[in-house]
Amino acid sequence: MPPYKLVSRESKPDNTVVQVGDCLIGGKTPVVIAGPCAVENEEMMVNLACRLKRMGVRMLRGGAYKPRTSPYSFQGLGADGLRILAEAGRVAGMPVITEVTDVRHLSEVCRYAHMIQIGSRNMQNFGLLKEVGRVGYPVLLKRGFSATLEEWLLAAEYILAEGNQQVVLCERGIRGFETYTRNIFDINAVAAVKNISHLPLIADPSHGTGRRELVLPVARAALAAGADGLMLEVHPAPEHALSDGPQSLPPGDLAVFMEELSGAGAGRRSSRASA
Amino acid sequence: MPPYKLVSRESKPDNTVVQVGDCLIGGKTPVVIAGPCAVENEEMMVNLACRLKRMGVRMLRGGAYKPRTSPYSFQGLGADGLRILAEAGRVAGMPVITEVTDVRHLSEVCRYAHMIQIGSRNMQNFGLLKEVGRVGYPVLLKRGFSATLEEWLLAAEYILAEGNQQVVLCERGIRGFETYTRNIFDINAVAAVKNISHLPLIADPSHGTGRRELVLPVARAALAAGADGLMLEVHPAPEHALSDGPQSLPPGDLAVFMEELSGAGAGRRSSRASA
Amino acid sequence: MPPYKLVSRESKPDNTVVQVGDCLIGGKTPVVIAGPCAVENEEMMVNLACRLKRMGVRMLRGGAYKPRTSPYSFQGLGADGLRILAEAGRVAGMPVITEVTDVRHLSEVCRYAHMIQIGSRNMQNFGLLKEVGRVGYPVLLKRGFSATLEEWLLAAEYILAEGNQQVVLCERGIRGFETYTRNIFDINAVAAVKNISHLPLIADPSHGTGRRELVLPVARAALAAGADGLMLEVHPAPEHALSDGPQSLPPGDLAVFMEELSGAGAGRRSSRASA
Amino acid sequence: MPPYKLVSRESKPDNTVVQVGDCLIGGKTPVVIAGPCAVENEEMMVNLACRLKRMGVRMLRGGAYKPRTSPYSFQGLGADGLRILAEAGRVAGMPVITEVTDVRHLSEVCRYAHMIQIGSRNMQNFGLLKEVGRVGYPVLLKRGFSATLEEWLLAAEYILAEGNQQVVLCERGIRGFETYTRNIFDINAVAAVKNISHLPLIADPSHGTGRRELVLPVARAALAAGADGLMLEVHPAPEHALSDGPQSLPPGDLAVFMEELSGAGAGRRSSRASA
């Protein structure tokens, strides 16, 4: 018997739908969350947010507290970044999501964001998971770099066990021997998690591939395998991005994809129903 | 500069289409190759082949010389298996593909099969690759368990360098730390190979997942990412299969999927063209 | 040029020696840190500590706040565990080390422990790394499950960049495809880190192998590759341990090994010097 | 119950000792096999062989048929390489080992070599394993890039099942996410195989690390974990080697190590006996 309980379909057969503002994750229509890796300045964020909103993007992402491998890399704008992100979301009329990396920032992040992201490096930061379980905010829980499915689901179990059911899982690629791509996007995990758990699942092909030209093919694949939505890194000038430039889409590419998606959405769901 | 030449789009920008009988791999329509892991007996093979043909399957697979991890496992029917496979293909009116594991079997396999499969364990059996490059038969080259994209493409380069252009690549999952699935189906590799190379690519979600319930979601994903077709293990009674039962589909499940596919095929290709 | 600075031998050619009580890590003699995975009760801890001290163990380990994959597993005794650990160390006359998993526990842990352990799951908990860098306590930094050498050294760099030079690295095995062992103990990393960095390195073959019968052979290997010491899980009755029983040594096995080590220690160092 | 039989200590509790000329592998003294990655020319081979012999090296290695990832890389001298290798061994008074990559070369290789090497890429080339099992020559079986212990032992089982007991296992590193080293030398596997199997085990830290400065520390580690010997790549001018230069030792470094080893050998064995 698997060691997780509350996250499994045995305990709750129906799909959980997580609502963030007017954005439903896990419902009939796949949702797209988009934005830059890091909040860089207010003008860029507001302009980009408005443009994304017009394309049909449903939630705005942007990092304020960035977990960076090197202490010498850009660490994000912190509290200023939170304020800018919230303002951009307000102007564009979209809920916003940002990562919390430290339990001491949680209440501040909750003041500005509508959804909290737990990043890969903190998937087993159990103190943070428990606190996030108590605040009752919707949570996006990214899979750790080398977390097994069981470990990932048990991390979600920590949040649910504290009483917070509003959890969305996010597959963002795992670590492997391949060097051509930044990570291995684990498409098996998308299909498996949708079988095992009632929780919604979002795919992050930006981190999952690390290469701009692969993001959209893998995005399509994730939706075809059953993902409930996508999180995509977008930057108005990827070549000048302060972080994750090589995997960021220019807005024009995303616009074309959003049109493709709006045309295909209903078809996707009905074709899955027939399987 | 990448170390491969003949397999790259720089050397040949247009997609290569590999023809096996009346089956075109790499053309406008995705193809499905299906059959049991191993040829077990003639009656089963002929019945199954006819049933698969009626569903729209375009090529019959079946192992005669099976590379098995243990010397004590069923090793396949050998020459008898080849004969049965050829007969089943003839009755059903489909070309057949089977694996060659030993350079000494090559001429015998060529007598019976229309396409030769190089399995993952032999991806870097360079003597075999060179011989296969010389016989001028269409070849399906599976990716090794832990081969990088570059190693895989260089293995194909060995075949092309001998003068045989009729090579189809097959992504079948790579090895990782996850134990829930048999392998990690590398969806990034599907998208990447289609960018880098003009060769057609087939996805094998049966080995790529190792679990029946994940085969079709991952099959859909592979096509969405740009795969030119699928290779699927099917068995009339998976619970009694002599090998690979847990990942084999019953024919009824495949029939439903084939209908879904025939309805969606044109749409898939046009949606890709717009991206 | 590598992205780390303060941890590298370029910035400091001589070996750093970290002193914890009278225990010198990185000096001429390899040190052994030992104790149970988790503090379970006071009698056991005091008895075991005295026994370990007599064998030549130089520091006592024991988990009070345990990071556990499942929320339903034993989570450690918390503050009571800290108190018991400190008492056992005091009675036996040894400094003690324990893990801190949450930045909010740091000052409490510093009250009881002489050295702070950052576990694998928190190797990139950058807020915690920075705080640990500020408290000025000796730190043992375990390598993350799938951290590259560069990521591990950069995590140490976070601590040094805050002004704390008292950092010891701990190789504890990485994640791979092998299922026979719990992890892959990365012996290459032991040799490489000693080349790249001036920081001391401790090997943890208990987690590195996950199997009792492999712990001592791999411990010998780590010392032969240049490790400055060992951290070993020991339990008076491994079959009844609340966690990590299968990889815990019974005290008798450790006693034999400690004798072997005291006989070989000088020889080891001189043989290394001649290489 | 494990699926292997003949290779396990259950079927044969005592260590197997494989004799090649006057070189005993698996006996009381660890043996060193050394030589260049590839045979390049006769003068170099004869000079190097004589120098290695004087240091205490017991067997000469050198590749004639080289399995190379790219068809455009140097493929070895083939039959000429075999002849040169045999001549160098004859002059120096050492048995020689070389790799066979193709079943059709087996009888030719047996004419020149005293021990046959099966390389990592051919670990599951079952036709080759069976033939090697029938010729009755001593065999060195390298572990595949991503072979589990079970798969490796079952590959050896193929050879023993044909009646050839003269099998030596060779750990040469496995594939992982780390890019600093070429492979992850699996020290756990060294200890585990010596527990599970009666077959001798040789370590190849040249391929296991891929970096010259790590070869000898990892060599020491492998012996400390129980390996019965080492296979080391040596080249008189590593910077000009046609293959594997960065991991080849210059002869002077090996000479120092061989002296260290001859002093420590007896001690190593007796310390193991006490554990």
From TrEMBL, chains A, B, C, D:
Source superkingdom: Bacteria
One Pfam family from the record: DAHP_synth_1
Domain annotation DAHP synthetase I/KDSA: ranges: 20-259
Gene3D superfamilies in alphabetical order: Aldolase class I (3.20.20.70)
Keywords noted in UniProt: Transferase
GO BP: aromatic amino acid family biosynthetic process
Keyword NAD: no
GO function terms (MF aspect): aldehyde-lyase activity; transferase activity
Protein name (Swiss-Prot/TrEMBL): 3-deoxy-D-arabinoheptulosonate-7-phosphate synthase
Organism name: Desulfallas thermosapovorans DSM 6562
